[in-house]
Amino acid sequence: MRLLAAGVVAGVLVAFIALPGVGSVGLTARDAANDFQEMDAELNTSPPPEKTVVYDAKGEQIAVFFDKYRESVRLNQIAPIMQKAVIGIEDSRFYEHGALDLKGTLRALVNNASSDSTQGGSTLTQQYVKNLLVENARTEEEYREVTAPTVDRKIRELRYALRLEETMSKNQILEGYLNIAYFGGGAYGVQAAAKRWFSKPAKDLTLPEAALLAGITQNPSAYDPVQNPRDARKRRDTVLYRMAQLGMITKAQADAAAAQPIKLNEDKPVGGCETSKAPFFCEYVKYEMYQILSDGKYWELPKQRQAEIESKLRRGGYVIRTTLSMKAQNALDKAVRSRVSPTSNKVAVEAMVQPGTGHIKAIGQSKRFGAGPGKTSLNLAADMWHGGGVGVSAGSTFKTFTLAAALEKRIPIRTSIHSPSRTTVSGFTSCNGDGFPPWTVANSDPAENGPYNLKNGTWMSVNTFYAELEKRVGLCDAVKMAERFGMKQGNGKPLQQVPSQVLGVNDVDMVHLAAAYAGFAARGKYCEPVAVLDVVAPDGGRLKLPEKECKQVVAQNVADQVNEILKGVLTQGTARGNGIGRPAAGKTGTCEDFTCAVFAGHTPNMAAAVAYWDLRGPWKYKVYGVYGATIPAPIWAQSMRGALAGEPAPAFATPVGDFGDLADVPDVRGRPVPEAMAMLREAGFNPEVVPRPVRSNRPPGTVANTSPGPRQEVEPGAKIMIYVSNGRDREDRPGRPGRDDFPWPFGD
Asked: pLDDT by residue (tens digit) across 117-141?
């Protein structure tokens, strides 16, 4: 009977009263009633679109995404005076009527018939339905349909409203309405409105504030308190005196509130990565989420479907927990911008990755995020699939992978290769069996000409040495080693298998380069870069995240030996002077013809990669005179010191096994012979004492010197001759300079 009665009302009242301007469309009451009873009454009442919030590893908010700024709350989190204000001005008989308020509709009929103005007869339930239909519209066509001024639309809303009154309590309907209504200023829902206009939660709203918000909903543009403050105040006072008329407040309370001017404390809603504290990391997360929300198919989808995925992120109300460390991010930002001006045509970019997990701790660059001079929205430290470009040449940082392949093949560290300043190497073959013409390669410094081994050839980054070493390792195996550590081109394509890859001709991104060096720091365990740890939907369910693998891609002792050699780059190689006060290793990279400069390095608990080039085009605008050690390495050092301040400083694991290394002869001068022999044996050498003592200023019976001498590099197991001091130096002889009396000049 209720449904039938509502159907009759729908046909007679709604068609001819609620929409008087379209009541002459010819729809009969009988037809309307019949259609009404047969109409589908199910309506999606799921929560309206919510903002998506991104948090760092410590739970601090770093970004917000939204189409409509909204933050849903429960009814008990909304000030009772706010609830009364909305009911008073919108639907004073809300708790007394059903879906249709006949009394209110008749009042509207009388008003509309006797004046030029029209008065709506919609209940809060009907208004809630209308808002739900608008929110559920996914296309422009659907939006036009649910907002068209037609009798059909009004009847459909009434049918839904009747169903909601049967399935939801009044408080649930009121809560839904307060969370979905538009309160102007870009704020949807009363919680967002309270924060937008007054910088406070909805539970703390006062009477004049509640009255202002309740009045806005009728016409958010007309009653905008900033754009139209006079009309907004007039509307607020209308709400106040309506509440007094209904006995919700006293006349004195209404007078006191109306006497107050509008007092705003605005907090304008801003969202997206541009307003984030870590905008480039935010961009990386954004594209990760696009992949997560599309089951890894985002880049395969047509533009329209991609737009739907992007909208899903903004409207989905997700809570995203990430790997970001703001401590590391702040250190990175300070380092890159202290060395390179944000307004310069040159740019420095950096990424930091945690060894053993692949967690990206920071991503940034010298340029600021956004549009306009000196800014960019390109995530230059990331690959193309995360909002970046195609990458930048890796330079000699790629030599590390050939070094690892050589050690894995048990090519002895002491292997000496004659490395002239310029040479031509032939005989390279790709994994597919393709051959290459002879390759001519030169050293950056013509003085680099002579024999080098795996240690000093790496420390000094000798190109001709590594060209020959790559030939001995095999081009295919050298490239495959880089791929084991996750390396690919910045455009997502596989690495180019060309002889010059050892010098870094492949364009790569700094996120993956940092992750690769993190793999060496983790003793050969490579982990794919990870930015998103957890995603929770509004219903509390967790989204399934793509698997990010960690694999042992080389033996621990091989990685340990790589780290041991790379430590020397910072102490006696191309990057000396860029130490960070704790055990660290790294590799410089200067790109071909000064198109860029790179540095990648790591400690056992953090890895980072830095690149520097001219954003206008590295081949057209070169960075002459800039090497991996001159700008990238100092940026790396400064950022690492800041990121790791106060953190443990573990040492790298000592390499185990025989890699054919050369060992330093311990300095045993001045020590008793038995102690010196024990030290030399412990270092892996074979000591032998020379019978005849020598003149020396050392105490008699102690070691005067050794051959080979202290700190010289020789093969393990080599014989070390010990010369014993007789305690007499040549100062005893008149006219002779004091010195040790050795068969040859040792020095001291």
From this structure: 334 458 899 999 988 888 877 667 7
660 within 8 A of 415, measured Cβ to Cβ: yes
By the 8 A CB rule, do 201 and 195 touch?
Answer: yes
Pairing of strands 663-664, 713-714: antiparallel
pLDDT attached to residue 683:
84
Q: How far is CA 7 from CA 15, 26, 27, 159, in A?
A: 11, 17, 13, 8
Single out the residue of 389, 394, 399 nearest to residue 591, CA to CA: 394
CB of 724 closer than 8 Å to CB of 673? yes
Neighbours of 61 (CB within 10 A): 12
pLDDT digits (tens, 9 = 90+) for 689-698: 999 999 999 9
The candidate with the shortest Cα–Cα distance to 685, out of 701, 662, 657, 703, is 662
Q: How far apart are CA 611 and CA 381, in angstroms?
A: 8
Cβ neighbours of 24 (radius 10 Å): 10
148: three-class secondary structure by DSSP: coil
532 closest CA partner among 218, 283, 314, 743: 283
Residue carrying structure tokens 């407040």 = 249
- Say how far apart CA 266 and CA 227 lie, in whole Å: 13
Q: Which amino acid is at 66?
A: F
651 three-state secondary structure: coil
How many Å apart are CA 395 and CA 384, to the nearest integer?
19
Task: Write the CA distances from 423 to 139, 464, 474, 590, integer angstroms.
Answer: 65, 6, 18, 19
Cβ atoms of 51 and 64 within 8 Å: the answer is yes
Can you tell me whether residue 602 is helix, strand or coil?
A: strand
Q: Where are the beta strands (DSSP E) in 31-99?
A: 52-55, 61-65, 69-70
Average pLDDT rounded to a whole number, residues 589-597: 93
Candidates 145, 21, 205, 111; CA nearest to 216 is 205
Angle between helices 632-644 and 326-339 (to 10 degrees): 150
d(CA 714, CA 186): 74
Closest CA to 45 of 128, 155, 138, 166: 128
Q: Are the C-beta atoms of residues 602 and 526 closer than 8 Å to each other?
A: no
Q: How far apart are CA 342 and CA 348, in angstroms?
A: 9
The pTM score is: 0.76
Q: How far is CA 132 from CA 43, 45, 178, in A?
A: 8, 7, 12
**Predicted pLDDT of residue 103:** 59
* Residue 281 tokens, joined: 């990391």
Please check whether residue 561 is in contact with residue 659, taking contact to mean a CB–CB distance below 8 angstroms. yes
